[in-house]
Amino acid sequence: VLSGKGGVGKSTFSALLAHGLAADETKQVALLDIDICGPSIPKMMGLEGEQVHQSGSGWSPVYVEENLGVMSVGFLLSSPDDAVIWRGPKKNGLIKQFLRDVDWGEVDYLIVDTPPGTSDEHLSIVQYLSAAHIDGAVIVTTPQEVSLQDVRKEINFCRKVKLPIIGVVENMSGFVCPKCKNESQIFPPTTGGAEKMCQNMNVSLLGKVPLDPQIGKSCDRGQSFLAEAPESPATLSYRNIIQRVQEYCEQHQLQEEKIM
Hints:
Layout: H1 10-22, E1 29-33, H2 41-44, E2 53-55, E3 58-60, E4 62-65, E5 68-72, H3 88-100, E6 109-113, H4 120-129, E7 137-141, H5 145-160, E8 165-170, E9 175-176, E10 183-184, H6 193-201, E11 205-208, H7 213-221, H8 225-228, H9 233-259
Parallel strand pairs: 1-5, 1-6, 7-8, 8-11
Antiparallel strand pairs: 2-3, 4-5, 9-10
Helix pairs in contact: 1-9, 3-4, 5-6
Keywords: 4Fe-4S, ATP-binding, Cytoplasm, Iron, Iron-sulfur, Metal-binding, Nucleotide-binding
Organism: Sylvia atricapilla
Subcellular location: Cytoplasm; Nucleus
């Protein structure tokens, strides 16, 4: 899960994608947080204060459900307020360790939540997972041009490193007032929003998620917004997007099997 821009909702999307995929109990889902300087996944998944345990087969992920395991640098800090002040090589070493030394078991989906940008962490994860044939990247943006400007760079990054793009999610896309039901554009799409950008750059738009204050509250409480607000328009939008991601991954797997 990528975006050139910070604050567009990558971690929120990663957390809800993990919850959505894990709703199918036959699937094993892993969520890896490689945002080393700002790990917010432990908080969002209700796992703050949890510790990682070492066993003979490596580090054990922290489990939210039996079929949903999580790993983050947040579990290795003595306090959630500790700053991680590392240069590139140390970050790369930790990402390699998260992939090599964590006993993930057999997983159907590995979701990777990344920091903003196109630098060390992104290059490392693409390089280390290249042999595993990554299904692709979901790119998250908000509607305004300041965000789209950075997201175009992210799309070009994916093309340069030959990382397939599953599609783009436009987050915080309009806000429907719960009282008067009028829709306001909090982040006006002055240049046509994600839809126009996707047409221009020939990538799929997976969907638009409206702003819902309940999403932020659920994240702060470490609860799944999809379970807490099943009737919200944002939940319906998320469910459609998650289904499209699932379908894309299944198609990709079939193609890989044919090639092999």
